[in-house]
């Protein structure tokens, strides 16, 4: 009888233990390089709370902003070794793992926000995402609008010749070299977290980013001019590792749904802020210079269909046909 009682107690304990562990299916780390005040971080935090609510607490996500778990290259590497589970990253940074998915980040290849939305929902983007998964074992959850990149400097830049010899910071990815090289600038790859100080100290003369990023990183404090070159329409990818998705089990659908909702919220907010910020910068005393983009585009265009691009001409033509 005592044996039966002990066995029953052990069985009950195992059931209780099973119940307690199943209540916490996964604890995931979401890493990114953007500031706490950015839309990217705000909606990552929103998504973490929403996922917890929709899964009754079974999936908990902790968000690590501002390169606290590593710079862009490091968090990409972290997905592969399980150091992080979810990241925001630019297509230009995943080019080294699967080149074709970077196509949307090439200079002047996207025609605007409507074109970008069509691409996000296209079979082409789905196919490229599958190709990235096959190459890495990581899954693209959604595409986030990052905005049109513009050059900031301490002088007006109105035509390609104004960029000759200009030492301009670019992200540490190969495709980001195409635009500055095409116009005779001197591109200087540098981590995002180091840019403000480099501009302030004159290590570089210029940088390029969308208007919301220029605002939240306060680059306008150390640069007098924003030149509306719009040379790249940038995106971010939300990527999760296969291992992370396996951990959440039956809650994967809820996680994907929330992350896609977050993507839409960010994209709409960034797109609206691009328009609003032009006047905001002018009110701050910054020179916001309208630029004829045609000469810049002409300098880059031959390179988009030349040797060395990581996408095929079929990819290029399908994107242009969207």
Topology record:
Elements: H1 2-22, E1 26-31, H2 39-54, E2 59-64, H3 72-81, E3 86-89, H4 91-94, H5 113-120, H6 123-136, E4 138-153, E5 167-170, H7 178-182, E6 186-189, H8 195-200, E7 206-209, H9 211-216, E8 225-241, H10 242-248, H11 252-283, E9 287-289, H12 294-304, H13 313-321
Parallel strand pairs: 1-2, 1-3, 5-6, 5-7, 8-9
Antiparallel strand pairs: 3-8, 4-7, 4-8
Helix pairs in contact: 2-11
Main location: periplasm
Subcellular location: Periplasm
Pfam family, one: DctP
Tell me the β content.
15-25%
First-last Cα distance = 75 Å
Overall structural domain count:
1
- The radius of gyration over CA amounts to 23 Å
- The helix-strand sequence is HEHEHEHHHEEHEHEHEHHEHH
The CATH superfamily name is Bacterial extracellular solute-binding protein, family 7
* CATH structural class: Alpha Beta
| DSSP summary: helix tally | 13
This entry's quaternary arrangement is single chain
Low-confidence stretches: 1-23
CATH hierarchy: architecture: 3-Layer(aba) Sandwich
Biggest pleated-sheet summary: 9 strands, mixed
What percent of residues adopt helix (DSSP H or I)? 40-55%
CATH topology: D-Maltodextrin-Binding Protein, domain 2
What number is the mean pLDDT?
93
Number of strands: 9
What general outline do the C-alpha atoms trace? globular
Structural class: alpha/beta
């Amino acid at each position: 009888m005592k044996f039966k009682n002990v066995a029953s107690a052990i069985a009950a304990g195992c059931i209780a233990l099973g119940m307690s562990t199943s209540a916490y299916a996964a604890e995931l780390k979401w890493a990114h390089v953007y500031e706490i005040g950015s839309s990217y971080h705000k909606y990552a935090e929103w998504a973490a709370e929403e996922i917890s609510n929709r899964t009754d607490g079974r999936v908990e996500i902790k968000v690590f902003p501002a390169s606290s778990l590593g710079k862009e290259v490091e968090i990409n590497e972290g997905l592969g070794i399980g150091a992080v589970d979810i990241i925001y990253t630019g297509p230009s940074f995943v080019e080294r793992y699967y080149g074709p998915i970077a196509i949307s980040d090439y200079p002047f290849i996207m025609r605007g926000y409507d074109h970008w939305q069509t691409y996000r929902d296209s079979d082409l983007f789905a196919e490229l995402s599958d190709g990235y998964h096959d190459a890495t074992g990581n899954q693209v959850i959604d595409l986030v609008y990052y905005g049109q990149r513009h050059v900031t400097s301490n002088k007006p830049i109105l035509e390609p010749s104004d960029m000759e010899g200009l030492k301009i910071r670019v992200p540490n990815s190969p495709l980001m070299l195409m635009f500055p090289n095409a116009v005779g600038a001197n591109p200087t790859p540098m981590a995002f977290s180091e840019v403000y100080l480099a501009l302030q100290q004159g290590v570089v003369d210029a940088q390029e980013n969308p208007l919301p990023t220029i605002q939240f990183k306060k680059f306008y404090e150390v640069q007098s001019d924003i030149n509306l070159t719009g040379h790249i329409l940038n995106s971010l990818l939300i990527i999760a590792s296969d291992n992370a998705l396996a951990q959440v089990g039956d809650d994967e659908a809820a996680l994907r749904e929330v992350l896609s909702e977050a993507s839409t919220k960010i994209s709409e907010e960034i797109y609206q802020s691009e328009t609003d910020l032009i006047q905001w910068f002018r009110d701050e005393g910054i020179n916001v210079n309208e630029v004829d983009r045609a000469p810049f585009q002409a300098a880059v265009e031959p390179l988009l269909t030349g040797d060395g691009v990581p996408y095929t001409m079929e990819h290029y033509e399908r994107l242009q046909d969207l």
